[in-house]
Fold this sequence. Notes:
Blueprint: H1 2-29, H2 31-60, H3 74-107, E1 110-111, H4 112-121, H5 125-134, H6 145-159, H7 163-167, E2 171-186, E3 191-192, E4 200-201, E5 204-205, H8 213-224, E6 233-234, E7 239-257, E8 263-270, E9 276-286, E10 289-296, E11 305-315, E12 319-327, H9 336-339, E13 340-359, E14 362-371, E15 376-379, E16 394-400, H10 407-414, E17 426-428, E18 432-436, E19 441-444, E20 470-471, E21 474-475, H11 477-480, E22 488-492, H12 493-507, E23 510-514, E24 523-525, H13 527-533, H14 542-562, E25 572-585, H15 587-616, H16 630-634, H17 639-644, H18 646-649, H19 654-661, E26 665-671, E27 674-680
Parallel strand pairs: 3-22
Antiparallel strand pairs: 1-26, 2-6, 2-25, 4-5, 7-13, 7-25, 8-9, 9-10, 11-12, 11-23, 12-13, 13-14, 15-16, 16-17, 16-22, 18-19, 20-21, 23-24, 26-27
Helix pairs in contact: 1-2, 2-3, 2-15, 3-4, 3-6, 3-15, 4-5, 4-19, 5-6, 6-15, 8-14
Amino acid sequence: MTSERAHTGNWINFPWRRLVNFRRNFLLTHPYFSLWWLETTCCVIALGGLLGIVALIHTHEGKPLPQWQFGLTVNAIIAIFTLVIKGAAGLVLAEGISHLKWVSISGRPQSLSTFVAHDNASRGPYGSFELLWKNQYYPRKTIYALPFISSFGALLTILLLLLDPFSQQIIRNSECEVRVPNNSTIARTNVYSEIGREIVTGQRSSNLAVVPVNVRRAVNNGMFASQQPEPAYACDTGNCTFSRHYSTLGYCSSCKDASSEMRIIEYQEEYTTTTDLMFLNFSLALGESNVTLSRAQMIPGRGQQPDLISRTSSSLFTGTDIVMIRYDNTSTPYNPRRNTKGYRCNIVPCVKTFTAKVANGRLEESLVEESRGEFNLVSRDYNRTNVMDRTNVMAFSKADLDCLQTPDQRDILKRPGYHFDDTTRWLPYNVSFRNGSEEAPLYAPTFDANLRASGSPCATAPGNTHPDLCSGNDTTRKAFEAVPAKCIYTMYTDSIVSLQTNLFDKIFSGEVLSSPREEVPGFNGSETLMAIWNAGSGNGTLEDLQGMMSSMTNSLTTHIRQNGWEGFKTPATGEMYRITTCVHVRWAWMAYAGALVFLTLIFFFSMAVYARTNQSSSASVFQDFKSSLLPVLFHGFDGDSLKQLKHVSISNRQIELEKETEDIWISAVPTLDGSKISMITK
């Protein structure tokens, strides 16, 4: 049992014995490494502490503050690494400066005060300041490297004091946005068809369709409300980004100044048997007719005169055209020809492309593009059983080619006869939907090619030359699926005609009359035209009119994108962020710690090389004295020097001893009792 235990103990101790023997043999064969192994290790530790800080801040840069146990923070870990650097670098500097004090007296005589200054410098910053002042950098017109090296170490010792506050400046905590897993959404639609109830008398409808109340409300909000409605969006954190462009059906408007197109005719008309009035007619063409504002230059009595006249002309393909002529009698100097302005506006279905962001709970949507044309008229072509339904419902449709994923999809479109190039985004498209959803759409056949010149490509060559795409005049499913449903935008003509006939044509037609000679001068007109009259600055500028029209169509677009067809109004998705505190790295402050560590390595290398070179040529070698007190105790002054210092040694006051060191020069000399410090006559 005893032998087994002894055997086990030997097995355990065997690796340690080998390690101890290896260390002893290595130090014996490498004496210089044995002199500096601790300082070398500290250099590695200091460099490791620096790399630790770099790794820490690089890992957490731009990221939220980590939630560690015990409330530890990034700055706390940096402080720990800083403490490691200060401890390791401080030891290297202290031992290096201490070793140089012995090297300084081994080669040439040196002032005892300088020897003491080196010793004090190894103890801290105060002594380092003293050494910088005490060192003789150019004695007897001879340059020695030692005072420069020791002063370099003293300077680094002083700079080491600033490492703590400077390292705490590396990290600055700032507010930032951090991505969260959930997505934000904002309303949009690919398909829109919304009409109100029809007025039916017997078996026939007396009108196409009544505009739904909520559609009228959207138009009125755009014209009368001071704050426009926002599209529905979901952003739980209150900070979201929709950086990818998203498109939706809607309405667009445009206005231009047509004053230069006006025809002005002056004529005279009998007012009374004795009085004639001069009139001015201002006319603008609207389709095949004219819109005319007629004003008398002066009315002797009370009466009304038109200050604004507005007329519309609607077409399924071109939208609603509005012509307005406005007279402004407030401008000076009075000149009816210059004071009268003409405008043309157009309201038309379109596809709008946006980007958006939500900041602090507020939506900011930016318009990127408006695509007003490029629609094709297609048919849903199915029979309804209800007498209130039409048997052939048509729609405007267009395709977004930027939505296509592969070149093969574009090639399939070109084969039946669609014409476009690589820069084309919006393509008039002969496909709509009967029902279904974006994932499983039920496509509608194309309309008769005779209706429009751009009718079904399958009805004419070269469509019929591709049997995989066209079956007679019908489109095959392969051709239908060339463009995904999510890339097709369709607005049904029921909604378009209903808006044009029963809303736009009515609210934008009429006059605003003024009564300048009444007891209380004022204006009279419909609510809509009065809103246009007073829009913006109230001066009737093009910007005022365009602002009003844009506000109205934007509000209508918001309604459309929130009330599209179910299954075809997949909302656009964005990235959701939460506001938190993030780590911001100021690398300039990190440079201080890095420079200090590398300069310490340079000092250690310079000191070690200089000491070895000096001691190799010196008779008295102090290999490992450094900061230890033992060399002073065992290798102090020789006997002759002690006798000369007898009158000094009787003092017990340090300040008196320091005064004596100024005039005492010493050098290390070999004796039979080993190296001793000997006084040298100056």
